[in-house]
Amino acid sequence: MSQHTITNQNYIAGVWTTAHSEQTFEVLNPANQGVIAHVPDSDASDASAAVDAACQAFLTWRFVPARKRAQYLKAWHALILANLDTLAGLISLEQGKPLAEAKGEISYAASYVEWFAEQAPRIEGDLIESPVVGRKMMAIKEPVGVTAVITPWNFPAAMITRKIAPALAAGCTVVAKPAEDTPLTSLALVKLAEVAGIPSGVINIVCSSRNNTPAMVNNWLQDSRVRKISFTGSTPVGKHLAQASAATLKKLSLELGGNAPFIVFEDADLDAAVSGLMAAKFRNGGQTCVCPNRVYVQAKVYDEFAAKLVEKVRALKVGPASELDSEIGPMINERAVDKILSHIDDAVQKGARVLVGGNRVRISDGPNYIAPTVLGNVSKNAVLCQEETFGPVAPLFCFDNEQEVIEQANDTPFGLAAYFYSENVSRIWRLASALETGIVGINEGAIAADSAPFGGVKESGYGREGSKYGLDDYLHIKYLCQGNLS
C-alpha cells in the first residue's frame, strides 16, 4: 500500500466503484476542516447492491472450512501490520489522533483479526444426552448470515476489525458503513483484505454522508436478508436501530453511549490512580465511549489527588496529530469543540473551579484544539454529569463514604464502563458487584483487550465484542434430533 494512495471508492462484489448516483462528499481534516478526499455518497441503491453481493457470497463462504477462513484472516492480519505506519498516518490525518497513539490503534485493530482467526476453528457444539433409547441429540452453531456493520469515527481501524473479523470467522458475510468523518482508514483496511485474498462479496463497504446515511441504513433495516446488525455509536441511534429492525427480528449487537465513573478511595495508591485516570481519560483526547466522565475522589485524599492529577495534565502536549510527541490532537470537528466548551462553561456557572486548562488552544494547523482540563468541586447538577463530554475534561467530585459513591456512580441511564481504585480486598468485591456496568476496571485504567468481552448494560446496549463471547454474537444454535436408531 503506497503512503500516497488513498482508497476512496465503495467496494461491492469485489469491485471498487463509485456511488450509483455518482455523488461524493468531502472527508475533512479535523484540525482545520481542509478537504482530504472525496468519497462516494451512497444511497439505498448502493446499500441494496452490497446486500446482493453479500448474499451471493454467503452461499459459499459459510461452507468454507473454519481453518481456511482463519488462513484468510491471518493473511489480512499480516498485511495490516506490514502497513502499520501508512494506516496510522491515515488515522491521524482524518481523525486527529496523535501519531504515536494511532500506531497503537492499528496494532490493537490487528489483534482482533488475529484473535478471531484463532477462534474460528474453535466453534464447537454439544452432544446432548437423550432421554429415550434410539435417539441422538446435538446442538451445532451456524453463521447468522449477512451482517451489517456500522462503525464510529473515534476508532476507525479498531471498530471495523472488531466487527468484521468475528463475522468472517463465524462464516458470515458483511456489508459495512464507516463513519462519514473517518471512512479512509476503513477503506484502506478493506483494500488490504482484498489483497489478502478474501473472496469477492464476503466484505462489502459503502460510504455515505450524514444526509444520506438514514436512507442507506434503513434499506438494511428493512431487508430481511440482513440477519444481524452490529453498531457502535450513540444511544438514540441504537434505539432507532432496535425499533426499526424489529419487523425482521434481526440479531443486534449495540455498543452505545457511556458515562463512566472513576472512583478513588482513601485507601488507594494515589499515584497508580492518577496514572490510571490519565490512561483512561485522555486517550484519543477523551473521545472514547469508555473514558471516565465523572471522577469521584474520597474527601480525605481529594486535595492530594487533585494536585497530582493537575501536575500530570499540565504536562500533556497539545499539538498536530502528525507530530510523534503530541499527546492531545485536534477534536473531530468544530461541533465537538463547541460542546466541550459549553460543558466546561456550564460546570463553572454551577460552582466548579478550573484547576488547569478549560480553554481552546491555538495551534498552527487549525483551531479545533482544547487544552486538557481538570475541573474541581463540580456540582452533580452540571450537564456533564449526565451527558458524555467526549473531550479532554476530567471533572472531580468529592464523596464521603462507599454507599454514597455507589449511588452516585449508578445514577445514570448508562452502564458501559466503570473504574475504581482501592487496596481493600473486601471493598473491591463489593464494588465489582454493585457497579451497574458491563465493564469494570479495578486498579486499572487500560481495560481493552482482544480476548475480553466489551459491551454494556442498561442504555449502553447489549451484545459483546471481542473474546469468545463476541464470536457467539455472529452465530445461532441449531438443535438436531435423529430418531429411530434402535
From TrEMBL:
GO biological process entries: gamma-aminobutyric acid catabolic process
GO MF terms, alphabetically ordered: succinate-semialdehyde dehydrogenase (NAD+) activity
Keyword Ribosomal protein listed: no
Organism of origin: Marinomonas polaris DSM 16579
Name under which the protein is recorded: Succinate-semialdehyde dehydrogenase / glutarate-semialdehyde dehydrogenase
Aldehyde dehydrogenase domain residues: 16-479
Keywords on record: Oxidoreductase
Similarity field: Belongs to the aldehyde dehydrogenase family.
Active-site residues, Swiss-Prot/TrEMBL: 255
